[in-house]
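User: Hi! I'm working on a homework problem where we have to compare a predicted structure to a textbook description. Could you give me the structure for the chain below?
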Amino acid sequence: MFTPDPIPRPSGPPASSTPLGDYLDQSAPGVSASYAVLPRSLAEAMPLPWQQQMRNLLAEFHQAFGHVPWPVYQVVPSRYERLVNLDDDQLAEVGCTVEVGDDGELEYRMRDGRIVEDPETHQVLVSCLDPIPQAPAAGPPPPQAW
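Assistant: Happy to help. Predicted structure tokens:
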């Protein structure tokens, strides 16, 4: 009743021992080298079964790492811009100043005093308006206008 043929092995590469890291390294939206950010409004808009699974995963995560002294994180929506496209407020935000050099050309200097060699291509992160829609505020509905 048993076949003498060997059990077929799955084709393809072996399963990764770091599947989450592998996925996050693929430059997914909201992922940087150090953090993965989930917009709350999008997470709460997921289908109910997804929300239940996410809630269970986060509960296990916080149970496992609740003892770690967590700082308070402030997430700021940002985008990459070239230095030459920034206004004075944005330059100050990224710690850069603009001066007229000895040759009459503009010199961009970072906070530590070093000159940016190619400001036309040098990109920095600057804050921007959040393009992700926010969930409506919970509370009583607004009064009806008659």
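For your comparison, note the following. The CA atoms of residues 82 and 121 lie 6 Å apart. Residues 48-65 form the longest helix (18 residues). Good luck with the assignment!
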